[in-house]
Amino acid sequence: VSEILAKYGFSFGDLILVSPKAEKTRRACALAVACLCTDRELLQQMKKQKTLPAAGINKKSGVPPKIMERHRKYIIAAAEILTGDYPILGGYLEYVKEVL
Fold this sequence. Notes:
The protein is an all-alpha fold. It has helices at 2-7, 15-18, 23-38, 40-49, 54-61, 65-70, 72-83, 87-90, 94-99. It is globular.
């Protein structure tokens, strides 16, 4: 996972600072991640351009751009973990799976 996240310009350790703490923010981030995981075009765009397609996520899920900007690293990491072959790490994202 570390090598994948490095391509986006951050490390696994950076997630400690940007993980959502408030319930409302966690739910908004979960919606953004769920939107990415279920929309093949947005996911491919993220993986190809190595950026978060915030406008597309906002359009499809209604998650405010401000939340996506603050938690960009977390949303990208969660999407990569859930769409990759990381079952143990995916276990830590159960609340995102509930939204899916």
